[in-house]
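Lay summary. Proteins are chains of building blocks that fold into shapes, and those shapes determine what they do. In this project we predict the shape from the chain. Here is one chain we studied, written as its sequence of building blocks.
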Amino acid sequence: MSSSVIREILKVTQSPDVISFAGGLPAPELFPIGAVRQAASTVLDRYGAAALQYSTTEGHLPLRQWLAERAGITPDNVQIMTGSQQGLDLIGKMLIGEGDVVLVEAPTYLGALQSFNPYGPAYTQMATDEGGIDLEALEVQLAALQQAGRSAKLLYCVPNFQNPTGRTLSLERRRRLVELTARFGVVVLEDDPYGSLRFTGEALPSLYELALDMCGGPDGSHVIYSGSFSKVLVPGLRDAWVQAAGPMIRKLVQAKQGADLHTPTFNQMIVMELVEEVMPAQIERVKALYGARAQTMMAAMKAHFPAGVSHTVPEGGMFLWVTLPERIDTTALLPKAVERQVAFVPGAPFFALGGGHNTMRLSFSSANDEQIGRGIGALGQTIAEALG
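And here is the predicted shape, written in a compact code that computers can read:
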């Protein structure tokens, strides 16, 4: 195991003078505090002591039913998690053994790597471009594994507004990914914490939805879907869920019993009070603010970043990805940026097998326009100085 790079950086940036583009923190000024307070009161009035008691591992049934109805599945295909990070950990515990091949994007979410690493996977990086996973290259990789008498145990990906790049996998690539993995017998873990936060372009079906259409029912699906309320309501309640085939869910229940028995009942009941009336309006507020802040950040980068620096253009979510000239090491650049009171996450930790020394992740979600302008200006100066 190793410490989270982002968590360590966040310790350094606790000073109110440092503008942090490092952590993927939801904008706290948008938290629906009044609605959460009212929901908590309603839950206690309605359920009394039951809201504070131990409960079933599977999760609060009304919340599972609500999620199942939206997905066209049954509650037996839904497991509530204490944050989506727990889902990654328990799925890794359930599926990954020492030396098992696990396919991950290059770059990929480093929290997933941190969850999987203790189980000893043999990572294979999938090539990516501006459109996400390169499916032609993936087919070659899967065929090569098959020819060598091996197979991938798990493919992990973030199709919507990927963490860390902000890229979105196209509909054509989604369909091909589902078909390829089904053909080669690979379980897919689709991590989708940002899917509702689209501020430009058209919504796309999830890999899970495409797999349901292909196989005809949830218990035949090879795709596991991980969703979260953290980015669309509040992160502190730590409520998330997994949708998967029934046998997979039953094993997850057993794994979760050994981890924390169940997600806090009170928190689940609060979320259930918010999903119908509060959450839709909350999502619209978040999308509008993040879309505006993304535009502000990209405009500031155009004005302040030197030539030779490029970045992705996200259609939603909370992040964009910056690529600097090869001779720049962003890990070495970070302390110099902090001296100018701005922070980012170096790109190297997002690569399972190394690489990305000249990249960085920037989050636009929690800094206001003035901070974005000032912070990007300071970061531009830091980069220009490093380039000489």
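What the prediction tells us: The chain has 13 helices and 15 strands.
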